[in-house]
Amino acid sequence: MIKNYSAEDFTLVLSGGGALGISHLGVLHDLEINGLTPKEIVGTSMGGIIGACIAIGMREKEILEQIQSFVSISNWIKFSFSGNAIVDNDKIAKIFSEIFGERKMSETLIPLKLIATNLRSGEKKVFTALDDVYIKDAILSTMAIPGVFEEHTIDGDIYGDGFLCENLGINEASYKYVIAVDALGNNSFEKEMPDNFFKTANVFNMFEKSMRLLIYNQTQTHIRNSDKSIYLIEPNTKKYKTFDFHKITEIRALGLGF
Fold first, then answer.
1. In the chain, which stretches have pLDDT less than 50?
2. Region for 114 from its dihedrals, namely left if φ exceeds 0, alpha if ψ lies in -120 to 50, beta otherwise
3. Residue 192: predicted pLDDT
4. How do strand 10-14 and strand 177-181 relate by DSSP bridges?
5. Phi/psi at 118 (5° precision)
6. Cβ within 8 Å of residue 160, ≥6 positions away
7. How far apart are the first and last CA of the chain?
8. Strand 152-154 and strand 10-14: pairing?
9. Assuming Cys at both sites, which of 104, 113, 184, 227 could form a disulfide with 42, CB separation 3.0 to 4.6 Å?
10. Which pLDDT score, from 0 to 100, does residue 146 have?
11. What is the pLDDT of residue 120?
12. Are 46 and 16 in contact (CB under 8 A)?
């Protein structure tokens, strides 16, 4: 259990997973009450958003309050009728500006790494303190799910969600010891096939399960090839959808008690 975790210096790695990433807050709560503070944070997508909040000194309670304040989709989503995505980033960009202001990646209390994907080359991009980039821009890059959120442009390069390269960024950890929270891990998908009365529901569930399996297998390959000492936490998120942002209390609870 986390309370027995004895590594003095460790990297905290937080995965992507949409609303499922709210389970990271439960783990963060347990880290705080046990006096465990990471020396470095690596985040992808939703894990990047929460990781960035931790990196600037926000406590779990503050992060939870921020998420609760825009739980209504109308507060942070603006639908787009042009471009390559269904969501315009204007509203959510304003929220990130309010939280992070003009802070850059080099201006965090805890070193931060955010994983994105260069949509021109397909290569992984890791935003660090070495990049002269605003935190809010790196976040808009790491969370830009292709086709859903607008891709984000920085200095002429176009970025999309980091899950396309590494959803659980253990390869970017600088420390030997790693606490990794995978909201799309082995406990994120049903082992049985969908069996709903309506075929459309089965098709949708099969698609989501397939995406979770794809990401899970990507992560397992990274873990098998890692030389880090990894304390892996896989919250049981299988009953929830990646867009269940209105179920904050239930999903947060999934990260407690590891």
1. none
2. beta
3. 79
4. parallel
5. -75, 115
6. 116, 117, 119, 141, 144, 145, 146, 151, 152
7. 5
8. unpaired
9. 113
10. 82
11. 96
12. yes
> How far apart are the C-alpha atoms of 137 and 97, rounded to whole Å?
9
What pLDDT does residue 207 have?
A: 82
Query: Which of 11, 47, 26, 244 minimizes the C-alpha distance to 143?
Result: 47
Tell me how many degrees the CA angle 134-30-141 measures, rounded to the nearest 5: 20
Degrees to nearest 5, angle at CA 41 with 65 and 214? 90
Of 233, 240, 238, nearest in space to 256 by CA: 233
Say what the pTM is: 0.93
Determine the pLDDT at residue 92: 85
Return d(Cα 96, Cα 247) in angstroms, integer: 21
Token look-up 């794809």 returns 214
Q: What angle do CA 28, 30, 35 make, to 5 degrees?
A: 95
pLDDT of residue 88: 66
pLDDT value, residue 42: 99
